[in-house]
Amino acid sequence: MDEDEPLLVSRHVRESHNVKNHWSKYQRNVWTANLFILTAILFAARVAMPVCAAAMAKEFGWSKAELGAIMGSFFWGYVTTQILGGYMADKIGGDKVLWISSLLWGSLTLITPRLTHISSSMASTIVISSVTRVLLGIFQGVHYPSMMSLLGKKICETKRSLPVGIVTSAANFGSLVCGGIGSIILEQHGWEKTFYAIGVFALVWTYFIRTLAAKPRQTIISIEGMARDTRGVEPHAVPWILIFSKTSVWAFVFAHFCMNNCFYILLSWLPTFYHEHFPDEKGWVYNVVPWLMSIPSSVLGGWISERLIKAKWSVGATRKTLQSVAMLGSAAFAMLLPFCPGFPSTILCNGLAVSLHTFHHSGVLVNPQDLAPLYAGSVFGVSNAIGAIPGFLGVYLSGQILHTSGSWTAVFAFLTVVNCAGISVFVLWGTGKRVV
Questions:
Q1: pLDDT in tens, 297-349
Q2: Exposure string (b/e) for 8-38, b if CB count within 10 Å is 16 or more?
Q3: Which one of 20, 83, 415, 436 is separated from 389 by 20 to 30 angstroms, measured CA to CA?
């Protein structure tokens, strides 16, 4: 018998086993709905501090610099658990990691007001709040890698884009809900009640996710599993060297990094852009309307992706097309912002920029599940850790450009150059085929 035959048989058995473990249509819909709500609550917890920032700063006497340091400390924790979250999801299951992490960050959100009031000293409140934000980042850092690992293992590639598009659209939905309802709670009942409400909802949905994860599943003992046991090889060892020796993996990581640079610059600097150009306009309009437009576009991107694959487009061509729309479209409309003649046209361009950005959810964001379906969580964890760097580096560089040149056109040109570099690399060296 040919020496490669056992490997081929083993891989065939493994893939057959994975197919039998895919969710049914009903399970897929139930999990998609629950993950959407959980992700929305996760982002509500994340933006609770920015929503309550002015009230908290006034109560505790924080300066803008101190407030910025407190809010920015989230990313220092967020970066640290991306890889660990993906690895643990691939090893013990993304569903388990999700409910454990939501129990932790939900509980932390619930007790944040109590922790902040431990001391009346301004210095102490700064330290406590910063540590709380770092811990929130640590606990939430495992969410996306775990969710991508779970979706990659439980949904086949031809039906994966739409659920991913729906679930990832929850990020903007959660931010909008917290910005809207959270602001009302803040004004009528105080900032503490905003944290209490989000914390309670997080723990309630943790119970639902835990219940879903605990439902009995069909267990299949494969020939591969028995063979691995006899050889004493760990079933879930991640072949890091093999994975990151692939050019297509680095193309995905680089494109994700570049797209995140665009997202964080728009998220962080657009409010300042509006304040300078349209100081008399209502803040809730430019802080809500563009991001509201992005929710249906994320779902639309997933729907288009599924239609293209059903129309016999290759997975690689589909991913590259959606990613090209995301990176080139968002850059083009961002470049138009300084030249818009009025507030309505600026809102439209802003909305189109962030809406087209969401096509990224059906492009590069699902690519780890194509490249390495058994290790999608680990691969996504690495890429998301690297992709978090623009959260402080890209935003910082944009601030330096503004400080030096005073030109918003230069900022959006910087964003455009990075986007063009990212899509060029992905189109040239990316793929939708399995490489590991």
A1: 988 998 999 899 989 999 999 999 999 999 999 999 999 999 999 999 999 99
A2: eebeebeeeebeeeebeeeebeebbebbbbb
A3: 436
Consecutive H or E run containing 116 = helix 94-116
**What is the torsion angle, in degrees rounded to the nearest 10, for the CA atoms of residue 219, residue 225, residue 230 and residue 233?**
-120
Domains and CATH numbers, the chain: 22-217 (1.20.1250.20), 242-436 (1.20.1250.20)
pLDDT at 216: 59
Q: What is the DSSP string of 259-319?
A: HHHHHHHHHHHHHHHHHHH-TTS-HHHHHHHHHHHHHHHHHHHHHHHHHHHHTT--HHHHH
φ, ψ of residue 94 in degrees (nearest 5) = -65, -30
* Among the listed residues 79, 427, 83, the one whose alpha carbon sits nearest the alpha carbon of residue 255: 427
User: How remote is the C-alpha of 113 from its chain's centroid?
Assistant: 26
pLDDT above 90 covers a percentage of the chain that reads 43
Residue 170 CB contacts under 8 Å (≥ 6 apart), including other chains: 35, 36, 37, 38, 39, 40, 43
Residues 6+ positions from 416 with CB-CB distance below 8 Å: 331, 332, 334, 335
**222, 223, 228, 234 alpha-carbon torsion, rounded to 10°:** -10
Per DSSP, 389 falls in state: G
CB 419 within 8 A of CB 330: yes
pLDDT of residue 413: 96
- Please give the C-alpha separations between residue 49 and each of 71, 178, 244, 380, in angstroms, as whole numbers: 7, 10, 37, 27
Q: Give percent above pLDDT 70 in the chain.
A: 90
The Cα 424–Cα 320 span in angstroms is: 10
What's the pLDDT score for residue 91? 85
- Residue 286 confidence (pLDDT) above 70: yes
